[in-house]
Amino acid sequence: MKKKKHTLVYFFLTKTLNLTVFALVVALGVDLLHNVGMKIEKNIPLPGGVDPRERYPFPDMALGDSFMILDATWIKNLRSAAYMYSKRHPGTRFTCRRHGEGWRLWRVA
Fold first, then answer.
1. 83: pLDDT strictly greater than 60
2. pLDDT tens by residue, 4-26
3. Contact, 83 vs 50, CB < 8 A?
4. In the chain, where are the structural domains located?
5. CA–CA separation, 103 vs 109, rounded Å?
């Protein structure tokens, strides 16, 4: 039973302390959520990125062409991108296989 009493006392003191600090902050007019060290700047250009549709050379590939990816973490993305390209361009198909030290994607149709 003592544990429950201590827990209730701790809970009460914590909530009371938090409310007291909050009341003090409001009374002083301190705005903790806005403009904390933020400086507004104008005319900063947005950094350019790579269009995901242009990441892989699918449009430039002829039947039988292939390219290699050494990093295995990109295989899922590569397969997904090849599938989506095939959906947007009927008549094209790709296959991906392990080859040497990495993975290779071929255009097969």
1. yes
2. 554 554 555 566 666 666 666 66
3. no
4. 1-32, 52-107
5. 19
Beta bridge pairs of residue 103:
69, 98
Q: For residue 95, report the phi and psi dihedrals to the nearest 5 degrees.
A: -135, 150
**CA 84 → CA 8, 87, 93, 95, 104, distances in Å?**
58, 5, 10, 13, 18
Residue of 47, 62, 102 whose CA lies nearest to 78: 102
Q: Distances from the Cα of 100 to the Cαs of 49, 73, 74, in angstroms?
A: 31, 16, 16
Q: Can you give the pTM of this predicted structure? A: 0.55
Scan for tokens 């302390």, then name that residue: 17
CA–CA separation, 58 and 67 (whole Å): 10
